[in-house]
């Protein structure tokens, strides 16, 4: 998620898009329309739309920013990244161009439906999440791996405010299962920085805050430490 | 993953299917062909096929068993499960019938390609895993959430040998990124049982065992403890 984070944070200053798609240059020889998936679509439940609208209101005074989200990374970002992480098994540019962000690879409404909001002063990210029918683990509930995924990207965005980071540790306590198609609030906070290590906390609660579904901690490391050998 | 586990373990005694599809009764009024996804398909790399064949050889003396894997749970299992976890937000049977197992919801080759093998005497599961192009996190590498997912299902199957369990904790150390389309070996071991708690360990290594990509521990609880309120 590293580069998509970079893209998101670069666009933090942008006003919320009124149309769901924005054109960005992805390849030097062609223009590719790149959809921002962190905007309402027909699969969003009333609960998710309501919360989204509430946070968009909070964005009006500049204290919160909505973070856009895309399926693919621009080739320039891939090249930059590969200077740090060179792996002989993945050098074919053709393959690379077909890769998609895990959290945006399922069809609209079936997978991860979410929108993130960032509060710079509080070093906090709130992610509004609705788990689609193809995220099933136990019958009727979101898979533990899908929960880990939404925690990883939310905590990752939170730590990213301090620079480019990677996840070194993720410790998750699963308290209560999350029903499919329900809306929950993922809240991540940068807790402390020790040397080059960043420590973040994360909770997943029901929208009324009465149910704690999951709590987690994460340790993040800046890129140079985690270089591929 | 609870019910799919149940299905898998019930079928442990079955001989490896020579054809990739087997018919199972899913609905009382109709027959539905349910595909076993834990068998080779054209997206599997040579490395994955080779390892799969090696483990199939090990199955011949009965010490190892291949575990099948499906996209959907039979309605009977859902009903059984709902007697434990009743949630008003997810009672519509029509919705439930459209839900799919998270790890099998992406198209062939693009998501989680894996096959699991179980050694009862050693209380151990080996999962051969190839991460497809739609599992991307950092450019060119498998997403940390996808890694957490494959660990969760492998450790879950390992603990399941002791009964129906749910994940209570997952603690993951990410050591080295896993390149997309590479094949890795996920190894999970039941470590100890304390009261009703089951403790499992899990590692992800390269096929030559020279690179430790990830290591994790998991705590599992039998179903009655984790009842939805």
From TrEMBL, chains A, B:
Lineage of source species: Eukaryota, Metazoa, Chordata, Craniata, Vertebrata
Residue intervals of the Thioesterase domain: 140-211
Family: Belongs to the THEM4/THEM5 thioesterase family.
Origin: domain of life: Eukaryota
GO molecular function, one term: hydrolase activity
Lipid bilayer topology: Peripheral membrane protein
Protein name: Acyl-coenzyme A thioesterase THEM4
Predominant localisation class: membrane
GO terms classed as biological process: apoptotic process; fatty acid metabolic process
Known catalytic reactions: dodecanoyl-CoA + H2O = dodecanoate + CoA + H(+); (5Z,8Z,11Z,14Z)-eicosatetraenoyl-CoA + H2O = (5Z,8Z,11Z,14Z)-eicosatetraenoate + CoA + H(+); (9Z)-octadecenoyl-CoA + H2O = (9Z)-octadecenoate + CoA + H(+); octanoyl-CoA + H2O = octanoate + CoA + H(+)
Keyword DNA repair attached: no
Keywords: Apoptosis, Cell membrane, Cell projection, Cytoplasm, Fatty acid metabolism, Hydrolase, Lipid metabolism, Membrane, Mitochondrion, Mitochondrion inner membrane, Transit peptide
Subcellular location, record wording: Cell projection, Ruffle membrane; Cytoplasm; Mitochondrion inner membrane; Mitochondrion intermembrane space
Provenance organism: Rattus norvegicus (Rat)
Gene: Them4
Cellular component GO terms, alphabetical: mitochondrial inner membrane; mitochondrial intermembrane space; ruffle membrane
Enzyme Commission identifier(s): 3.1.2.2
């Amino acid at each position: 998620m590293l580069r998509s984070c970079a893209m998101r944070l670069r666009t933090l200053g942008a006003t919320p898009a009124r149309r769901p798609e924005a054109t960005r240059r992805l390849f030097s020889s062609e223009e590719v329309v790149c959809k921002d998936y962190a905007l309402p679509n027909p699969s969003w439940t009333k609960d998710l739309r309501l919360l989204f609208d509430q946070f968009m209101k909070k964005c009006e005074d500049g204290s919160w920013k909505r973070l856009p989200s895309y399926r693919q990374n621009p080739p320039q970002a891939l090249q930059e990244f590969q200077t740090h992480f060179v792996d002989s098994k993945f050098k074919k540019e053709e393959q690379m161009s077909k890769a998609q962000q895990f959290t945006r690879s399922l069809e609209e409404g079936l997978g991860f439906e979410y929108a993130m909001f960032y509060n710079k002063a509080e070093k906090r990210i709130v992610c509004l999440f609705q788990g689609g029918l193809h995220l099933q683990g136990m019958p009727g509930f979101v898979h533990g791996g899908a929960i880990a995924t939404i925690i990883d990207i939310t905590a990752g965005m939170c730590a990213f405010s301090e620079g480019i980071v990677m996840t070194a540790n993720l410790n998750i306590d699963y308290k209560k299962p999350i029903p499919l198609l329900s809306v929950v609030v993922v809240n991540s906070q940068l807790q402390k920085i020790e040397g080059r290590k960043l420590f973040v906390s994360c909770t997943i609660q029901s929208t009324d805050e009465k149910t704690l579904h999951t709590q987690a901690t994460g340790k993040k490391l800046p890129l140079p430490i985690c270089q591929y050998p």
